Amino acid sequence: MFNNLWAKSLTQKFNQIQASDVANISDTELKSKFLKLKAAKQAGFTLLELLVVVAILAAIAGTASIALKDTDARASAAAHVTMMDELNKGIRTFRVLNKNAYPNRFDSLLETSTNSTTATYPANELVAIEDIGTLALTEDAVGVLSDIGITQLQYLDNTTAADFDGDTVTTDCASANITATIASRSNHVVSNNIFQGFAANGCGTTEALVEDSLVAVWTGGYERVFGGDGATFDGLGDVAGAAGDAGEALTTAFATQPVLMAVGLGPSSNLFNANSIGGMTTVPSYRHVNELQYGRFIALFEIGVFTGAAAAYTAVDQVNLIAIVDGAGDTKEEELGEWDGTRNTI
Fold first, then answer.
1. Which of these, 44, 92, 109, 40, lies nearest to 260 by C-alpha position?
2. Quick one: DSSP state of residue 232?
3. In the chain, N or C terminus with fewer CB closer than 10 Å?
4. Can you tell me the distance from the alpha carbon of 156 to that of 303, in angstroms, rounded to the nearest whole number?
5. 119/239 Cα distance (integer angstroms)
6. Cα-only R_g, the chain
7. What's the whole-number average pLDDT of the chain?
8. Is the CB of residue 215 less than 8 Å from the CB of residue 109?
């Protein structure tokens, strides 16, 4: 009986026989059989075999394409969910470690020409989130925010022309030109840092919160964040001449709905100061916006409850963090839907 080792050895010796060695075979029939075996050994694939292989590879490629569809978008959604969780934990941990005080100096998402009482939603769609309106703080609301450590917000100064880094390049932070400033390669201004001060290559100004300070509020429906219908905005407060959604001032009467102040989680906040107790070391970015739009996550704080009169509300006893949404206004559950394929990806 032949064993595998002997067969392998015999095959190697057969392959080593050169064409010149065949001439030494005197038996014509044996020589003919040997040449046929040698030719068969060196033959390549037939056309039919190649077509079968190509068809198999095409089927595998098609299956892989379907399996990998929207993989990048779903991976981004998973990353966003993780960032939302980390920011939620980070803010709550900061509060515990700092004797019941939340971080301060969040981004207001608003711009101003004088102070926080004249703030408006950016007219040039700088901020990608659409579910935003504006509302004035009451004296009581300022008080409860101060009690919890939130005394200042970052607003865009839309009147200032600043010389960044002493490079003699004057950068215009005016509302109408702020996207051009971000797009310019003659300065170091980027959209994600736009609410920082001029020394940090931004157009931001720190404003103390006082009675009648205007803040951004969530208008995206409260069932999306913790159940219940959202506040209704009638559009009477739209910024004149603004392109697209420019935010609305609250005028419609409704009752018992929570007031959710929306603030951006940008680098100006001491939440991201490594020297602060409980400070985070990284400022997460939201990447599903264009390069001219603000790409940070948004925190929603409950600061009051509407009473039913137009824009009237009572302050809560204590401000609470309700949710973190992404820069486009999607909640954690909506991002999870993008991740598991039950919701269309961006």
1. 109
2. P
3. N
4. 22
5. 11
6. 33
7. 78
8. no
Hey, which bits of 175-275 come out as E strands?
Answer: 204-208, 214-218, 248-249, 255-264
**DSSP H or E run through 111:** strand 106-112
pTM for this predicted structure: 0.73
Per the listing, tokens 């044996």 go with 30
Which amino acid is it at 151? T
- Residue 298 is given by DSSP the state E
**296, 109 in Cβ contact below 8 A?**
no
Q: CA-to-CA distance for 253 and 266, rounded, in angstroms?
A: 33
Which range is least confidently modeled, 164-173, 197-206, 329-338? 164-173
Cα-based distances in Å from 126 to 121, 184, 238, 243, 256: 9, 15, 16, 11, 32
Residues 309-319: what's their mean pLDDT? 84
Task: Output the CA angle 213-198-239, nearest 5 degrees.
Answer: 40
* Torsion sign, CA atoms 319, 114, 120, 125: negative
Closest by alpha carbon to 134, among 122, 151, 147, 144? Answer: 122
Burial of 98 (0-12, 13-18, 19+ CB in 10 A): middle
Query: Please, are residues 327 and 129 in contact by the beta-carbon 8 Å criterion?
Result: yes
Task: Tell me how far apart the alpha carbons of residues 82 and 285 are, in angstroms, rounded to a whole number.
Answer: 12
